[in-house]
Structure formats: structure tokens, C-alpha cells
Amino acid sequence: MPVISTTSSHLRIDGLSIAFGDRRVLSDLGFTVSPGQRLGLIGENGAGKSTLLRLLAAAHPGRAGDDPLPGAVVSGRIARPMRTGILLQELPFAPDEHVDDVLEAAVADVRAIELELDAAARALGAVGIDEAAAESRYTAALESAERADVWSIDHRRDELLGGLGLAGLGRDRRIGELSGGQRSRFALAALLLSSPDALLLDEPTNHLDDDAAAYLEDRLRAWRGPVVFASHDREFLDRVATGLLDLDPGRAGATALARSREGRLTGQGAREAVLAASVGTVFGGSFSDYLAVRVDERERWQRTYEDEQAELRRLRLAVAETARTVAHGRPPTDNDKFLKHFKRENVEQAVSRRVRNAELRLDELERTQVARPPAPLSFAGIPAGSHVLDHEEGALLRLADVAVDGRLGLAQLRIGPATRLLVTGANGAGKSTLLALLAGRLEPDRGEVHRRRGLRVGLLEQDVRFADPDAAPRALYERVLGERRAERVPLADLGLIAARDLDRPVGRLSVGQQRRLALALVIAAPPHVFLLDEPTNHLSLALAGELEEALGGYPGAVVIASHDRWLRRRWDGETLALDAVPSAVPV
Q1: Domain map (residue ranges) of the chain
Q2: In what residue span(s) does the ABC transporter domain sit (predicted)?
Q3: Full-model pTM
Q4: Which top CATH class is 397-577?
Q5: What pLDDT is stored for residue 346 in this prediction?
């Protein structure tokens, strides 16, 4: 287990490696985040972002009951502030806990700092107390109180709840009564309220509307301590991150290539860096800049690999053919018979020298050659299938004067065979409720929902939970689709689950990998109407872009509910904006 120091104002990682059995997740990772800096973690689903954050937040990794990575082999050094707080994708609250109790638990450290300040102040004038020690104690308590801003805790609580769209949340409500989005925002509010010295955030913008996302951006840009966050929100990365750390193992080779070209990594070291798990690649620009740099890196890596392979083929041929090419087997003529012995020795020496030189160059290049760029996990697109019922015009789905009390009110909505609809609106406007109505998973309190006979509707939900965490993705896929369809459209061919993860228990996959599986279960038998609730939540940046492109050519109806500002800026279909207060919205 790593050596952890909790006396630093920085967050520093040196030589960190993590492995689960024979699967290496991170290798020799190192970086530093200073106070006021905000490092964004990016990489494919399963690259180790959540794993890294859990380890950074652990007080005593390896201690029974406090091990964030059971079964992992971890080495390296970690330095971080004592009060380091984390926001996880899986929320820690029990359903029967009350909102007010959780908020008070969040500020327990701050309340303790306030009590210590009061006790230290009283000790200053106490009889028989060492004055120097008392003054030192008070100074330390005052500094802690100032960092935690203990005097404004109640005001900050109300401001945070309002800024994250939770102002009307009843403080006496139970956690189990809140929606998934409310629970996520409440967890974020509780963490920020606790004022930790360092922040670790795992997908903080999931479930945030524009106003709440903008509020969080402002808070983080003003945060005095180090911040490390994992996010697939491209707009958020552009606006908040002061640096990016790419944990994608596929980029390690490009990094090793650049370092070897600079003379910083040579020989076997370059080769091992290419083959290792993610060593992390720090990039100091914006996310938009990073996208262009990564494309250029990949192209240079591919060109270098191809050039070196061509050189290897030439050298191998040279070694095999040099003797025949130099000596070319011509017998001596009468005129040079007297030189036969002398010339034979010269020819043999020339052959030997040329073979030796070629062998040396070949040996060096074989030891230092750049590895083939690994094929990235790339979404193969929507499989072929019967997406539409027929070619006649008319609505597949039609809603008329529907209402779900306290959640949604809609005058009318028509979904045709080629509809492309983006549903937007603030938290609580009813986006998920609308998709549930269209999917037939919820009945309206009033109004009518008409569906064409034989209609197949698929829904990708925001939060994915598999009932059997021990089942493997391949087995679940076959169970849901049936053996025949699973054979016709293999899960591995969809480019959503890596080959190494097909038979791992689904409960051991990351949240993003589980959502990839949920997406596969929908598109493997493409529905006539494809409903997606926050489709880019938890998905890697690469997959989010590939999915958006695939949906543009989907031969059926597509309805998306999303807060993703990047997606919305590029949307060229219809848009339905729902009001936060239910009202009739004509379409």
C-alpha cells in the first residue's frame, strides 16, 4: 500500500501503481496539484479515474474497513491535505436518513473547528496554562477556522442549496424520497458545505442544469485548495480545468514516443513505457486544444510505427542478402588468379563488415522500436435492424393534454418515424418524466398517450443498476437478447465493452462501463423509437462523440433529454424546452 502523508497543502502523487490481479490499471503515475489549481481527469471508461479518486480520498488504505480498493495491489507515495473531501458517483446516503441530518454531518468537521477555537480562546486567559503553548494552540485554531470559514456556515448552506437548485427541498424529507438528480446535487452541496482543504469530484455535473453548472464552475474557480475532478462534460472541462491528466493507456505510447524523440527515454525504457498501463499524460491547455493535440499525436505515432516497420523489413532483408550481393559467387578470371587469395580475404571481410553493421542496426531498432498504436475501443454504430414499422406517414407516438401531477404538463407532442427531438429544461422540469411516459413505464394522471400497434421503444436511463452484480456482460447480453440475436450481433462487435471485460462481473465494472452495457442492450435490437436520458453522462468523451454521430444517422425516431451544453450547441434537430413549473407547452 502507498505511503500517505496528510500534512501537505498540495496534492502530490509519486510513482503510484495500482493492479487488480494481473490487470494493471495505473503504472508509475506522478503529478502535483497546487492550491488553486484544478486538474481534470480524462480517459476511456475503466481507465482508472474513479479508482484514483477513491485512493486519494482514503485515510488509511489497507486498514480493515477503510480500504477503498479491496483486492488491489498499490504502491507509491501520496501527499494530500488532512481534510480532503470526495464526491462519488455512487452516493453514500441511506434511504431513511433525513436531509437535515446529512447536512449537519457534512459540517461536523467545521463545527468541531469552531468548538476548538472557542476552547483555545478560553485557554488563553486560564490560570496555570503555558502562555506560549496556549497562544500557539489559538493561532492554529484560528487559521483552521479561517480556512473553513466557520462564521458563515449557515449562510453558505442556504446559498449552496439555492445555487444547486435545492432551495425548496424540505429539510425534514428522507433521502429515499428524493429523485436521483436531487440526491446527486444534494451530495455535492453537502461536500462543498463541509469546506474541505482539497476537493475530489467524480462526474460533478451529472444531473446539473445550466444554472447549477454555472454556479459550480464559479465556486470551483474560486476554490483556494487543490481540486481534482473526473468529468465527461466537455464544456465543464473547458471552463474549469487549469490542466488535464489523460489516463488512457493508449496514449502512453504517444507520450513515450515524444520523450524518446527528446532524448529523455531510450532503449528498453521506451518500449516498456509503451506497453505499460496508464502512466498518465499531463496537458496544460484547454480541452478543445487537447482534442487537436491528441489527434496529431496519434497520427505521428502511426507514421513513426509504419516507418520503423519498413526499416526493419529492409534491414532483415539486407542481413539475409548481403553476402550474396557482395560476393555474388563470380569465380576469378585468369587475369586475377594471382590475386585470388588476397581478393577472397577482402571480399570476406567486406561481407562480414556489412552483415555486422546491418545486424547491429537491426538489433538496436528491434529493441527500441515503437509499438503498434493500440486499436481504440471504438463504437461500431447502430446495428442493422428493422427500425421503422412501415413507410406510411403518421405518428408513432402522440401525447395529448398529458399531466403528471407536480412533475409534467404538456399540451401535445407528436413523434414521427424520423423525429429528432432534444428535450431541454431545468432540473425538475419533467424531462425524465416525459421519457418515462413515452416508454410506457409511467401512466399520466390526466391526458392520453397513443402508440402505434407493434411499436418498440427503447430507453437508456440515467442511472443503471443491474440486479445481478455477479453476472458477466456477455451472459447478461445473451439473457436479455436471446441466444440467436446475441450470436447474430455479438456484444464484442459493438465496440462498447473491451474484450478483457466481457466476462468480468458487472458489479466490478465502472459506472461508465455499466452504462455502456445498458446502451448495448438497447441498440443490439434497435427500437423504432430510441429514448436517451442524459446519454453523455458517465460515457467517455470519445464514445459520447461517436454516439452523437451515430444518432444523427439513426433510421428511426430519436428523443434525447440532456443538460450537455456541448451536445446542445451542435444539435440541428427539433427542440422542446420544458418549463420548471409544469405548464402546457405546444409543440
Answers
A1: 99-196, 397-577
A2: 11-274, 360-587
A3: 0.68
A4: alpha beta
A5: 64
